[in-house]
Every structure is written in C-alpha cells, then in structure tokens.
Batch of 2 targets.
Target 1
Amino acid sequence: MTVRPVPVTSVPRWDDEADVVIAGYGIAGAAAAVEAAHCGAEVLVLERTGSWGGAAAMAGGFIYLGGGTALQKACGFEDSVDNMAAFLNVAMGPGADADRIADYCAGSVAHFDWLVQCGVPFKAEFFSEPGWEPMGDHGLMYSGGENSFPFNTIASPAPRGHVPQMSNKKQGEASAGYMLMKPLVETAQAASARALYDVRVQALVVDADRRAVGIRARRYGAELFIRARHGIVLATGSFAYNDAMVAQYAPRIAGRPAASVEQHDGQAIRMAQALGADLAHMDATEVAIFIDPQQLVRGILVNGRGQRYVAEDTYPGRVGQLTLYHQDNTAYLIIDSDAQDEAMASWSPRLMMRPASWVCETVAELEAEIGLAPGSLQATIAAYNDGAARGEDPLLHKKREWLRPIGSPVGAIDLRESTGGFTLGGLRTSLDAEVLDVDGSPIHGLFAAGRSAAGLAAWGYASGISLGDGSFYGRRAGRSAAR
Amino acid sequence: MTVRPVPVTSVPRWDDEADVVIAGYGIAGAAAAVEAAHCGAEVLVLERTGSWGGAAAMAGGFIYLGGGTALQKACGFEDSVDNMAAFLNVAMGPGADADRIADYCAGSVAHFDWLVQCGVPFKAEFFSEPGWEPMGDHGLMYSGGENSFPFNTIASPAPRGHVPQMSNKKQGEASAGYMLMKPLVETAQAASARALYDVRVQALVVDADRRAVGIRARRYGAELFIRARHGIVLATGSFAYNDAMVAQYAPRIAGRPAASVEQHDGQAIRMAQALGADLAHMDATEVAIFIDPQQLVRGILVNGRGQRYVAEDTYPGRVGQLTLYHQDNTAYLIIDSDAQDEAMASWSPRLMMRPASWVCETVAELEAEIGLAPGSLQATIAAYNDGAARGEDPLLHKKREWLRPIGSPVGAIDLRESTGGFTLGGLRTSLDAEVLDVDGSPIHGLFAAGRSAAGLAAWGYASGISLGDGSFYGRRAGRSAAR
C-alpha cells in the first residue's frame, strides 16, 4: 500500500472530519489531543490498535523533567534549568540539538505541573537503589547517570526520572506508563476529543499548495478519508519494527528490538517523507543491557579484550549503548561470589538477575575459561583491586560505595549479544512541532511529536526522554494544529 | 533557493535538452556520461564548477576492485568473487548491503577491463609498505586492512586498491585521481557527450505522473531549465560540506570534513528527497587519522584509558573510525625513539609524519605526563612487550613483522581530535541505479550514483570504495537513463 500523497482532488468523499486529526493514541497523541481540545478545537484521534496506550502504556512510565519541579523540591533536591541543560547537552550527544534542549528545560517545571493538573499521580518519595525503575511506587529516581562519572563532573547531580504512582503496585499489574496515559486520555475525553480505533493511516491528503488537509486510512479492509480542517498531528511512534527502515537508517540495532511495540512501523515517518519532509538523528537509539543494575554495580564490566570501559554504576542504558556500539556487543561482568550473593539478596520479581556463566577459583582460570588474551583480565583486576582497596577507581571513577576488591571464587556473566533497544530518530520538526521539509520550511498543516519525530536525543539517552519529549512536543503539536 | 519539485506545466521554456542529463562531472557523472553515450544517447553534463573532476580528480585515485582482476593477476595475487565479497560484507558493516556487495564483486573484473579500455593506465607493480597510498607509481596496494586482523581470518588476503599510474610522479603534480578522470572524460567527449559548466542544479522538474523530466538550474545568476528526454542522473557528490545535513544525519563527523570538496553540499540528495526519495546509511562516514602509517605500525595506539584497541597495522581508515567513534576521538601513539627514528627514515614529502608530543625515560613518567590513570599505560606496555619478545600479540594480532618491545626513551604522539572524514550515505537506489521512493518503487526518470547515493559502505570503509562504486554504479545509471 503506497504512502504517496493523495491529491485532494482525487478524494471521493470525506468519511469523517475534525479540526485536528491525530494519528496515534500514545503519549504524544494523547498530549496533543488534550491541548488541541483545550484550545477549542474539535479533535479526532485515529489509533491503529483497539485502544489508546501505545508504547507509553507498557513502559516504565519515566518522564524526564527537572529544573526544580515540585516533585524534585518535595524530595529535597535542587536543580535549575541551566543545570539540567548542561547535563542533557552532554548526555544526549554527540550531536544533541542545544536549542531544543534549552526549550525543553525551560518548560520542564510547567510541564510537570500540567501533568499533575491532568491528574497524573506522583508520590513524593525518592528511590535511591541502582535499578532500571523503582522497586515500589516511588516518584523520583536517577534515570540518566546524573550522579555518576562523567556526568557528576559536568552538572550538579539531580534525579529527573519522574514516575507516575501506581496504587498497590504488584508484579503483573499495570505499569507506571499506564498511570501516565489513563489520566491524559480521560482529560482528552472530558474535553470531547473523539477517537476511532482499528484505523491504519496510509497516506496524507494534500491540496494544490502541498498543504496537508487529510488522511487516507484503512479500517477493517475499507478505505477511509478523514478531513483535517486545521491540522494533522503525526504521532504513530518509532520505526523500530520496520526492518527495512532499520536496515537503512539504524543498522546496528537491527534484529534487537526491545521495550517497544510492534505497531512502531515508521508509517507516519514514511507518509511525511513521501511529501518531502526532512529527517533527523535516524541513527539514534535507546539501548538496554539485559542484566540487573544491582549486579552491574557490584562487578566490573570488561570487553572482549578484558578491559574496563564504563563506570558500572552509571545509567544502565549508557552501559548498553557503549557495549553495543563501542565494544562490538561483547561484555562480561566479573563478579565474585560474595557480591553475586549480595545482589541476589536484593531480588524481586521485577529484576533481571543473571546467574554466573563461569565460576573459578582464580582470575587466571576465569580468563582462560572466557577465552580472553592471557594476562589481560588479570591485569585489569589487579589494577581495579589495587584502587578499590584504597576506595578509589582512577580509571573510571565508579562511586566509592560500590568499590570492593574482587575476591575468590570469581565468576563472570556472559553479556555477549545481551542488548536491545528502539529507535529515536524521525521527522525533523520546529520547536512548534511543525514538520519541516528539506528546504527547512514548515509543511503547512502538518505536525509531529513522539518517536515519529526526532526529539532530544542525538546519540545518548536517559530513561524518560521519550515520554518527556513526546508529551512536551505532543502538547505543542496539538496547540499548533488547533490554530 | 527551494529544492521543491517544479511542475512541468510551470516551466516557461527549455534552455537546453538532451536524452540523458547528468548533474555533476565527477567520477559517477563521467562514468554515466561514457556509458549513456555508448548506448547511443545524447548526453549533457551539468557541472557546478568551471571544469570536470569533482572530488575524484583531487583524490588518491584508488578504485576498489578484485575477484581476480588482470592487475591482481599480473602482480601475482589470487582472488575470487566470493573471497572479495566475504571481506566486504564484514569490512563495510555492520549493516552492509550483501546484495549490492555481491553485485559489485561479480562485476568487478569486467569493470577493471572497462576502465582500461577507456584509457585509464595501471602499472603492474605492487606497493607493500604501510601507507595511505603508494610512494611511487605502483598500481596495486592493500587499501582496506585485508592482510590484517581480523580480516585476515575472514577472507584470504588480496590487495584490491587499484591506482591509476601517474607518469613522472612528483610532489605537487597531478594526483592519481586526475589520471582516472582524464581518460573517462576524454572517452565521454569522444562519444559526443556535452558539458555545461558553472551550472548549479536547483530542483527537479516533474510531470503529472511524478516522472523526473528536467532540471531547474542557475548559471551566472540566471535561471535555466534543462529538459531530459529519457532520464536524469544525479551525481553531485556527498553532503559532507552541508553543515545542517551533517548535524541531522551524521553529527559525529561534524566540524571535521576532510579529503573532500566544498561543492559536496548534498544538493542532489535534497532535490530527490523533496520528491519523496528514500535515503540509506546517512550516518556512514570515511574517517582518516592524521598520522603516517609508517609511524602507526611501529608504535602502539592507546585510548584515554591507556588501553590498546586496534591492531596498528590495519587500514588506517579503520583506525580513524574506531578512534573517532569508539574512543571519543582520543588516542595516543606510544613509540620509542628507535622506532620513531626508523619511521622518520622512511620520510617523503607525501607522508604525514608527526613528532612526539612527550618523550620520557620511563613509561611511568610518560603515563603521568599524558595524564593517564596511574598504572594503566604501564600494564598495557608490560603486556605488549611480553608478547612482542615472543613475536606474539595475543590481544590484537598485529603482524609479527611489526612486533618489537617498546624501549626507552619512550614518546607519545598526541592524537586527540586528529581525525576527519567525509559522508558516505545518500539516496537509496536499486542495483540499476534507479532512485527509490519511500514505497521502495523507482521514481521514473531519476537515477543516482557516486556519493549522492548510498553505496557499498554502511559503516566500515576501504580506500577505493567511493571511486569504485561511484564509477560502477555511475555506468549503471548512464545505461538505465539512456533507455
């Protein structure tokens, strides 16, 4: 089915219409719906699946916010707009868009307040343990390595992972992302935003001036034409599950989709590209490494040459990126039996504990078992233990609290090919969420947000960036489209 | 000036026309001109500068060919199509396009013969020294690390860097790339291909069926409309000098253009994108490291953690890529005074010899001078020297001939921020050089080759790949457009 633009002159009829038509009812679509409806626009959301939610509803629910939000203050943390921007400019790069980061940081406190106004619950409690997400219903956590090297030398550490509260959180129950989505969708519905489900958007309808005026879609095998009187918001998510696009634009994440949804087929990106829209940061990805941070911090991570390469107590997504991209997706966590026992004692069903792949009495034996170059791991551990005994890590600056010489028996967890992730690139947009063409001009009537659009991340990542910029620029898109 | 497609109905007049109109008179444009003219088409080449040549005429002139070319045989090397493909599938990846590589390798021997028929001279002499290019007028050289680890374990080493011969090669004289371009352009001219210089292509002219039928251009401030009766070939080079495109698509090479020409502004990519053309491998780059390989092989290269990360005797472009992308553009070459003297003795004006930034009596002093973590460099050199004394490099498998324990005095060459390169991504094309839209369908009448198009490289590189696939698919484009 072609994504080529449909001339409005060839549209046989309009099956439905609204002031603002939104493709996709995930985080960006929901935020756009709320804001457009609050601007007085009649809103119609087209969703591919049978319900609202998108990737957001299945996610950990982190929203990356700071600069001194009410939640940060309630948990006793200081932060500022400049401090947040200083961190993001480094952590989202190389190649991060400083203007977008400045814009996002400046609006971050107000965006948190808006989420609260929409009914998103946050509990003023800080979670201080290493982990991908809080073990309980805590509302705030470090989610980007802000308090670890090298970021703790670049900006004052402040936690910015804001997590919606789940009541009676239990294994298998709703994710925190659901608790973000539900109030937003209810707010949109209360403002009379309509939704049509099981609708697959196919192509944009354009007038003679190349203005986007509608969408061609399919529903239960039938063709639908939906008219947008004021504007269209594209918010169908990433291209992580479009194998052809991944091969062309982000081949190094090929075959490793994770933490995303199969609906992320890049459709909105394709529809706008067909109209001459420009792209940005298509090679950017989030990368997870499949091991629990409770283990990571208690061991040392070495590459295929037996060398350390990252402070083990930083954001595990950063560990994943550096492992996949810089170390040929090859890593081993060296951890002694005491440390492994200690990590296991923190066990909960939500964690990703991994057993040791090899256990030996000596490092020399372990080195041989893994197949590392003779002496390589022995030198690495000798140097680490020497520093750890003094409470120092001169090579990588892991925090003192996690430094302890590695003893015997010593094990290794095989972390080869243990990463996965999702794509972060997409349509190039203005700060008002206008989709830009290759001339740098807005395509009239067309807006995008969420992972259909390039956001804050150019290379690096922090948990909460996607729901953060998706909701932030989703609102902008809704407001712009309502005009 | 907009790159948006011009409807043919709004073209005021045709200022010139031909069967095949080619934008850009570098390697791809010249190859396309020859082939289209030989197919009987009337050919017109539009070139931005005052003369033919492009980046090719300023380049080292390598053409990456193999599978048993006449030159390989004359120099006593065996190769096969499968062997060449096995190398390229690894060396051009991750993410390399296996179909394109198979196609290129299968046609490689015949392509060499075609170049010879066009009058490109090759001297049947092999250059065996480390270096970016031959010191004399040798015709063949290893140009991708084929005989180094890990590639020498993946395929049988065969040199594939084919270099046109310069008569009386002297410093400052014509480059080998000029000796490639001149015969091709003369062949095109002999076949009646015309050229118009100082013409800047601006946008494509399209008919109601979205077929490309012409080009809007500028010459000396005036607007020109050029009609293409059969087809258009886009061959204006890379986007390495378009800062905005680099920031969006390949930010990690931003600010480091090298070995390219300022005319590489991405214009053809933009013109086709505006019509809905798809892209591929926009993040791929060639990366040079600014030091002579005669020094590289005689030292050991360490990163900011004092660790070795690449066999120093591999393709220096690979060293550049791994340094820029995997080591935060931070490297130091550790080389003792004897080795430095030996490298300097191989001095010629064409080399990029670098003096030592620091020289010390002991490794411990050098480590402190550089500012590396205490003990890190000492452990690295102890391990290297231990192996080198036995003629082994268990960590990185540098060839035995370059292994020698590092002695005293010991120096280091500061290679931080010492890389530069150019972009390799561009329009997505079929193997017939048709420009593909986001549906995967050919855009009728539109073809592309050279660095306007994505070629063999997805991540890795070898010298000669750009002139290789530029000339190979330039010919395909010329043939396809002539139909």
Target 2
Amino acid sequence: MQTISEKVVGRLSRYRTLLTEQKDGERTHLFSHEIAAAMRLSDSQVRRDLMTIGTRGLPSRGYEIQGLLLDLDQALNQTRVHGVAVVGAGNMGRALIANLESTRTNLRIKCAFDADKSKCNRVYSGVKCHPMDALETVVAQEGITLAILCVPAASAQALAERLVHAGVKGVLNFSSQALRLPRTIALEEIDIGNYLAKLAYFTIHPSKERRNGRHEDR
Amino acid sequence: MQTISEKVVGRLSRYRTLLTEQKDGERTHLFSHEIAAAMRLSDSQVRRDLMTIGTRGLPSRGYEIQGLLLDLDQALNQTRVHGVAVVGAGNMGRALIANLESTRTNLRIKCAFDADKSKCNRVYSGVKCHPMDALETVVAQEGITLAILCVPAASAQALAERLVHAGVKGVLNFSSQALRLPRTIALEEIDIGNYLAKLAYFTIHPSKERRNGRHEDR
C-alpha cells in the first residue's frame, strides 16, 4: 500500500480510537455520518478517508466495527510494536508514562531519562528512569524507535540530536523550542502555549469555520 | 480587523513565539526566509500570513522584530488577559501549572480543581487547588474564560459541560475522550496517543510531504 498523507493518517488514527471505544458496545456497525459527527468531520470526508485504505460501508448498515478496526490496524501498522523512550521524567513525563500505554497497544514505553540524579534508577509506573549519560546505550539496547521529549526548551535540541544519533526515528516534542532535525526523522511538536493562544483568540473572535475541536487536517 | 482563519492564527502565534525568543538577541530584523526556515514553512507562506495583519518587511532588511511583535500582539489580542483554570491536578495538570505561565504573558492560571480531596486546598506553583464541587463558584468568582482539562476520559465530557455552563469560552482537552460542546465554544483537543500513532506510521513510511514537524496548517 502506498504511503498515506499525514493528514489522512492523523484522521485514520482518530477513527481507530473512536472504534476501539465502541467495539465492546451494543452496536456492531456504525454509519459514516455517526463517525463524522463524533469527530466533527463531514460525512464525505470519513468515506473518502476509509476508501484510501480500501474499506467501504454497506448503505444499509454502515461500517462493521471489528472489520474496520482490523483494516485500520493494518493500514496504520498497529501490529508492529514500537519501543518508546520518555526523555525528561518531570510531571509531564511521568503523566505520559502513567497514562499512555493503556490507550495504544503497539506502543511500549521502555525507558525514561532524566538529568536529575535523584530520579535515576527509580521506577515510575513500571518504567525505569536512567541518567542522561546512559541515553545512547539504553536507546540502542532497548531498540527504541520513538522518543517523547519533555525537557526544558534550552536542552531540547541537543537531546533530540543525541536521540536521532542513537537510532530514534520519530520525536514527539513537548518543549516550546522548535526542533531542527533531518527530514528523514518523523517529528511532531506540541506547543501547549500556542494552543491556548489560539483558544484565547477564538473566545473573542468566534470562528466562522465549520470545524471546531479535533482538527480535520491533523 | 476581520476574524483570521484558524490555521493562520495558529501560525501567527508560532511566529510570535519565535520572535519573542529573538527579541533580546543581536538581530533587530529577520527576513521572511529565516522565519520560514525556523518554522519549516515556505517563504511565501510567511509573507502571506504577515500580510493578513498588515505587516510588510523591507526587501533589504526584512521584518523589524519589535514592530512585528507589536503587530502580532495586537492581531492576536495578546494584550487582553485571560483567566485559565486547570481541571485535574495530577502530574499533567501540575506540569502545566508549573511551566505554562512563563511563556505566555496574557494567560493567568488562576485556579485548579481536583476530585481527590487530598489535593484540595493545596497550592501548586502558586495556584490553589479547589474541590470539584466548587468549580462553578470559583470559575465565576475568578472570571475564568479558558480551561485545560487534564482528567481521565470518563469524566471529561461532564466536566467540560459544567465549565461551559459556568462561563468558560474555550477548552483545551488533554483527555482521549473527544468532547461535544456547543459550536460557540472554542475547543482544541490534544490526543497524545494519536500523535504517537502518526509518528510510528511515518517511521515506517517516510512522509513524501515537504513539511515535517510543526504543522503548517495548525
């Protein structure tokens, strides 16, 4: 299957979250307009997205939840397990360690790192915290492919470069420092201050756009 | 000035972050291509965005940093102060309380709420944590307009509705539960699991798109 665009992958991943929530419920099928309403997308957007992975609903019953989940898992390679490192074991890092794994079956948080020696060798929610100078060794040993950066802005770029050099292929950056990494490295950056600034703006100037909430184009 | 689109507001807010970092540096001016490179945007995108707020650079020197910051502050209403409530004072909530305010001068985290009685009446980084049943009273008293939801998925929707009822105009949702709120309410949702799922996908299927990292369309 050819590479799907970033926007579509983002939405497919969200459909998967929704369907996972529904899969043990009473319904066996969902219509595209129901998926669309839950996601604040248009009906036709949902159908187009699911066509890209070769799935069609039945006009009379919609999409079969279990079958669609299997298709989504395959398209998104959810069957392949990724080792994840959390870099920075402050409150944010520890919140991610505690909460993330339950929602994603193919992500395994295998290690954490922190510059604070008092955190090193402690275990947070089952995940051991290592000193920063063990980063290269542990990332290689554990076969880490994804890293979540929860460190102060000033140290983010240097740590990201070390992670990439150690073999990490994707970085999720929570620091407010925008990173410069090779284009071959997948990179997502979440600047929470920017999200709030947008919210603040739209409390004063109501958006005229149809969408609101989870982004259609994410 | 007319309402700016959500995508443009997102980018303007990011330009503002970049320029704030630069404003005490040696440079007084920045060229659009320099802003573009730092943001992984195209040159023409940056110029178009800044034209929407009526700012043009000089061909010979680019944009004057201080002047552009003032224009951005005005366009984004950064001079208007917003009272922010953090709902859920677990690790994530406390991380936001500790780190957010320093980066955004017009956002004031004024209160936190938690269902855990042992957290109530404690003060985290200068912010008092109240019991959930005081939510309506404190939100009204403090004139809160924005709320950040850091609660488990199961309680997110009910709490969001209470916040809106109490007068909150914008919600930033960190729970994995997609919210349904009136369209008049500004809503941003950050499902961290989805970001990681996208990263995982693009470590296997390298993106053919030019962009990587901070989204041009955010």
